[in-house]
Amino acid sequence: MPWPSRKRDKGAVSDKKEPDAKIAKTEEETLDKEEEEKSTKPPAGSSKSGWKNWKKTKESDAGGEESKITYCHWLLKSEPESRLEKGVDVKFSIDDLKAEPNQTTFWDGVRNYQARNFLRAMKLGQQAFFYHSNCKEPGIVGIVKIVKEAYPDHTQFDQKDPHYDSSSRKENPKWSMVDVQFVRMTKRFIPLSEIKAHYLAHKADGGPLKNMMLFTRQRLSIQPLTQEEFDFVLSLEEEKPH
After folding, report:
1. Which candidate, 172, 212, 214, places its Cα nearest to that of 76?
2. Helices and strands in the chain: count of H runs, count of E runs
3. What is the pLDDT of residues 33-65, one digit of tens each?
4. CATH superfamily entry for domain 73-237
């Protein structure tokens, strides 16, 4: 299942020329546009009230007990707008994923060690947010699930691929990829600016997004999420945009 090099933060392989090496997720080898700069001003309205209401609901559901912090969900960045990398368009939007056979493809092209390790930690069936990155308005557009756990990324051995790595050996591959499948679109687009407003409020009052890697490790194209982070962000799709 081809995966254009578009899914990462910045690298994507043209599915047109090489259907086998479709999307490579753009890693930090190409720096993201400063997405945070686009959202330095939180939207109007208090995010704390939203957090308090969400917290009350979660506490009643869980009997007020804090759950153990573990990473069981993910956020995957992909570029929805065309950008050439070594002559290859690394664009890959959620609509491109939906157009794949069985709405499934591989997430290749990751060339950052921490992001690679996160890929290797992914388990079958786990869900991830599909995040449009390096674009006019970055944010979460949908949900995908892991349908094949980590295996060697073939693009590291392809000299024609933008993510070719001459130092990697087939007997001991440096880079991995997983297969993902489209689950659904989020009920509405959840922009980075809105998530950041909640992050800043939670950082001050101890909410679930206080350590979210989307803001503490902005350039990582593969990011883990705790259950609490995933649930809170998902709850935002039910709210009217500010």
Report:
1. 214
2. 6, 8
3. 444 444 444 444 445 445 555 555 555 454 444
4. ph1033 like domains (3.10.590.10)
